[in-house]
Automatic annotation (TrEMBL):
Classification lineage: Bacteria, Pseudomonadati, Pseudomonadota, Alphaproteobacteria, Rhodobacterales
Record-given protein name: LysR family transcriptional regulator
MF annotations from Gene Ontology: DNA-binding transcription factor activity; sequence-specific DNA binding
Positions in coiled-coil regions: none
Keywords of the record: DNA-binding, Transcription, Transcription regulation
Family, as annotated: Belongs to the LysR transcriptional regulatory family.
Residue span, HTH lysR-type domain: 12-63
A GO biological-process term: positive regulation of gene expression
């Protein structure tokens, strides 16, 4: 008959290996020997009747069952931390390190970061605004625990968890000659003064593909580096701009008309995580907080 007695040391070994990525690192973290870590994992697997780690070429890789068990254990260790007077989930008292694109940071994230910190005064966060390529590099190098971006990323070593999707819109000042349309098509913008993005940004390649397929040549007046700049230039009457409405345009906008833009492109706003290291309890808590505090709006929807 299977032994069902729960042994805390086995669970500690599981979490330490998931956090450090190796049995050697786990042994150092818990102050025990590497064989003791391996023995605890084997005992846990035998007791549960599940394979929690795959041993491949000298490396140890967690299975989906291990990651699921780790998340299930969060409440247990949070309770033990309260009993002991120490917060196990805040390993080594390191702050949660977050990086986000400029638009997401200033138009959406900061108020939610504030409420997250107010919920628990012991929480500590390091927060930066960065372009997407720097967010990805930081996650790959473990400098950031979590990134947030709406860019379309294809990069090995990172995992994207989409949580919001949206479609392109066309933004223009009130009184613009196209403001009475129900939907804007690429053909509507042929020769029209526009605010586009600098060529190094993914948003520029998207609009160029759409206009090239349609045989359209807008009159690009300004090239901007952020959605915030593009919208403000449109508000000032410089031209129309085509972009992702989330999160900047989810609130009412004075002096602007925002119309659907005919395109099959769907934006996905995603959490960016390391594919090689499971997220910490703090990271998962922050992701849940963001999801739960995102209001519904007319331009985006939850995934």
């Amino acid at each position: 008959m299977r032994e069902n007695r729960h042994i805390i040391r086995e669970y500690e070994a599981l979490r330490a290996v998931l956090t450090t990525g190796t049995t050697i690192g786990a042994a150092r973290r818990l102050g025990i020997s590497q064989p003791a870590i391996s023995r605890a994992l084997t005992q846990l697997e035998n007791r549960l009747g599940r394979t929690l780690f795959l041993r491949i070429s000298g490396r140890i890789e967690p299975t989906a069952e291990a990651l699921s068990l780790n998340e299930t254990l969060d409440p247990l260790f949070e309770t033990l931390s309260k009993i002991d007077g120490a917060d196990w989930a805040h390993t080594e008292n390191k702050p949660l390190s977050i990086a986000a694109s400029t638009t997401i940071a200033h138009c959406f994230l900061l108020p939610r970061l504030a409420t997250f910190l107010k919920q628990d005064p012991s929480r500590r966060v390091q927060f930066e605004t960065q372009p997407t390529e720097q967010i990805v590099a930081g996650v790959l190098e473990f400098r950031y625990d979590l990134g947030l971006t709406s860019a379309m990323i294809q990069q090995s070593g990172v995992k994207l968890i989409p949580w919001r999707k949206s479609k392109m819109v066309c933004v223009m000042p009130e009184g613009h000659c196209l403001a009475n349309r129900d939907t804007i098509t690429p053909q509507d913008l042929d020769g029209v003064s526009t605010v586009d993005f600098v060529r190094r940004l993914g948003g520029r390649s998207l609009t160029e593909q759409i206009f090239n397929r349609s045989g359209v040549r807008p009159n690009i007046i300004v090239e901007a580096a952020t959605n915030i700049a593009a919208v403000e230039l449109a508000r000032a009457g410089i031209g129309v701009t085509v972009l992702n409405p989330f999160p900047q345009l989810t609130e009412p906008q004075r002096g602007l008309v925002i119309l659907p833009f005919e395109s099959d492109i769907e934006y996905r706003t995603s959490f960016v995580l390391s594919a090689d290291r499971p997220p910490s309890t703090q990271t998962r808590n922050f992701m849940r907080h963001i999801k739960f505090t995102t209001p519904e709006d007319q331009f985006s929807e939850a995934i």
